[in-house]
Amino acid sequence: MQKTVIVTGGAGFIGSAVCRYFIAETDYTVVNVDCLTYAGNLESLAPVAGSDRHHFERLDIRHGDGLARVFRTYRPSAVMHLAAESHVDRSITGPAAFVETNVLGTCTLLQVARRYWSELEGRSRTAFRFHHVSTDEVFGSLGDAGYFTEATAYQPNSPYAASKAGSDHLVRAWHHTYGLPVVTSNCSNNYGPYQFPEKLIPHMILTALDGKPLPVYGDGANVRDWLFVDDHVRALHLILEQGRVGQTYNVGGRNEVRNIEVVEALCDLLDELRPDRLRAVQPALASYRDLITYVADRPGHDRRYAIDPHKVMSELGWMPQESFATGLRKTVDWYLKNAAWWQRVLSGAYTLERIGIADAPATASP
Q1: Burial class (CB within 10 angstroms; exposed 0-12, middle 13-18, buried 19+) of 320
Q2: Do 227 and 320 form a contact (C-beta atoms < 8 A)?
Q3: Is the pTM for the entire model greater than 0.90?
Q4: Residue 6's pLDDT is what?
Q5: Inter-residue contact 23 to 40 (CB < 8 Å)
């Protein structure tokens, strides 16, 4: 049976990695649906642009008629739903856009997918899957011990996390109410090539290369579990094809690192790989670490995230291939070698400014 997957948000960071992987490593035809917001970038799809198995549709997932046309035209055997507003700081500044895309857009997509699936017959109906890709931020904040599991209660603390929690609940409801065959995955912090420069790791790399202060929120002790994007994509492929219908799978890299340690590791790599740049932009400094500056914490900043990926490992045989050290080196190396990509990105709407500062004073982290 011909396999065709609709990938929503396929011009974004994780979505473009999904598209590149599916074209290079599988026989799927990929239908890439993206409305090309500020974070969507067709240049991230350059490696697959010439493939006759990659089709791009510029479309907002809130537009049901357009989605219905895409389903009728391409007759997908699966949907991988990654389209989302995803930056916490932006959700603090403008939460309504997150509700519009992440909640209402997901609802619209689910309705279109359900109508399409309900008209399928035989093996096509049985094999169809709707894979919803979400985040560990829906679970809230952990203390010093413990891990998020698939049974962890939802306690979202940012507008972004709340909107993703809402989309997760909608997907679950469409399965239990209408029978739509869904699987859901919740991942830890992704990093790697082609990531939009508002996220921590690329932001720090590019800010350091510019010789500007590296802003670390609060005391820098907030902990994140880091997952190299290519490892995540391999997990998504397994979950799509082998995950049990109605189940949720947590995907994490088992790489818990404090934010300050992430920034220091990036500085050390830049000291090794690009020392000449620091001498050019800040000749009085001895190390990129000298650029580190502590700033007021993000409002509602969750203290620690950490995922237990036992289920996806034991059931589906997934294992991450990159440690944080190897993945971070690959990431820094990619940004150093692909300045043309990020320079064109920075020439647009995003210019490394700080966003996500609420009107009210920041509260202490729990």
Answers
A1: buried
A2: yes
A3: yes
A4: 98
A5: no
